[in-house]
Write a structure and sequence with these properties.
By secondary structure, this protein is mainly beta. The chain has one domain. The protein has a five-stranded antiparallel beta sheet with strand order 1-2-21-20-19, with no helix packed on it. The longest helix is centred in the middle third of the chain and has 4 residues. The radius of gyration is 18 Å and the shape is globular. The two termini are 24 Å apart. 42% of the residues are buried.
């Protein structure tokens, strides 16, 4: 177990007046495992690529990247010391007309679910009360240029000055924006910032990942943008995850406050590293793809849950790795 503390100072750039700047710290609490079968769930459990916490119900909602039936899982997660007990409660059908869900965010205003999909590349709004689902209208010059299986892995609800915003980002660069990450440079991921009430596009930006880490063998090595969550003070946490032999999988969290360096045609978001899961002592056994911010903990801080995508066993992984972190410094 370890802890990483990074000061996010308001005076990083001259002239910056960021009212929400503060110190973030992350600490490993424990880990758990979700099996591939459960008596309450029909069919295999796996491919969990997105996660969100529903503060209204106290339950966690995970979406799966299954190419077949489109559904979400309602999960109960109990923290018992350093042990996580993860138990599926029910499966929820998502009649959105699309499949391969990769990300989810829940609106604090009306409880709607915003879900990122890859088959085809799209974002949908699902009402868990009525069961109605509608696909948002996104710019064609973005949707038509996504790389196969590299589209909307990142969906976050972020508080804005004039109302909540929906941040949607691709996993890797659009075909027109650049290349995937290599040893020398990161990949420029397009970020669409949408009015969460009207669903109108407000602006766009670029999130530039780190280069992929040096590996003994280039086969299988990569680095990409896997998930994002909005913090109550308006900051956004992005999760970069990659793989490089011989070290294996790695996950690094970065914080953004929305400022850019104003490069043309879209500004590059300024980011700061806040946690490397290896430094926290997290055993990265599988492919971590999902993260969500949960409730306040009795002994301080907020609970953050990360989950792996086992690809339904296609890559040798069986079941879902679940990791619990304590996060301090969130207002």
């Amino acid at each position: 177990m370890g802890a990483l503390r990074v000061l996010i100072a308001a005076s990083v750039l001259a002239g910056c007046a960021c009212a929400h700047a503060g110190e973030l710290s992350f600490e490993l609490i424990g880990a758990g495992h979700l099996a591939t079968e459960h008596e309450r769930i029909e069919g295999p459990i796996g491919g969990l690529s997105g996660l969100a916490f529903d503060r209204r119900t106290g339950r966690w909602i995970a979406v799966t990247d299954s190419k077949g039936a489109c559904r979400a899982l309602e999960l109960r997660i109990d923290l018992v010391g350093a042990r996580l007990d993860v138990e599926p409660q029910r499966a929820i059908d998502l009649p959105c007309g699309v499949t391969d869900a990769e990300a989810i965010a829940i609106s604090p205003e009306d409880g709607a679910w915003y879900i990122g999909f890859e088959q085809p590349a799209s974002v949908a709004r699902f009402d868990p009360v009525s069961g109605e689902c509608s696909v948002l209208a996104l710019p064609p010059n973005v949707v038509e240029q996504v790389r196969p299986n590299r589209s909307f892995e990142n969906v976050a609800i972020v508080p804005g000055a004039d109302g909540p915003e929906l941040w949607v980002a691709v996993e890797n660069a659009l075909l027109t924006d650049g290349q995937e990450a290599n040893d020398d440079s990161g990949t420029p991921c397009r970020v669409m910032i949408i009015d969460a009430r009207t669903h109108e596009l407000k602006r766009q930006a670029i999130y530039l990942t780190e280069p992929r880490r040096a590996a003994m063998l280039e086969i299988g090595s990569f680095n990409s943008l896997a998930d994002a969550i909005g913090l109550p003070d308006g900051r956004v946490l992005f999760m970069e995850r990659g793989f490089a032999l011989p070290r294996g999988a790695y996950v690094v969290l970065f914080e953004c406050d929305g400022r850019t360096d104003r490069r043309a045609p879209f500004g590059h978001l300024l980011k700061s590293p806040v946690a490397d899961l290896h430094d926290l002592g997290v055993p990265l056994l599988f492919n971590i793809e999902a993260m969500a911010l949960g409730p306040e903990l009795d002994d301080g801080g907020r609970l953050m849950i990360l989950m792996s995508d086992d690809n339904f066993g296609a890559t040798g992984e069986l079941g879902t790795q679940v990791i619990a972190l304590r996060v301090r410094g969130i207002e």
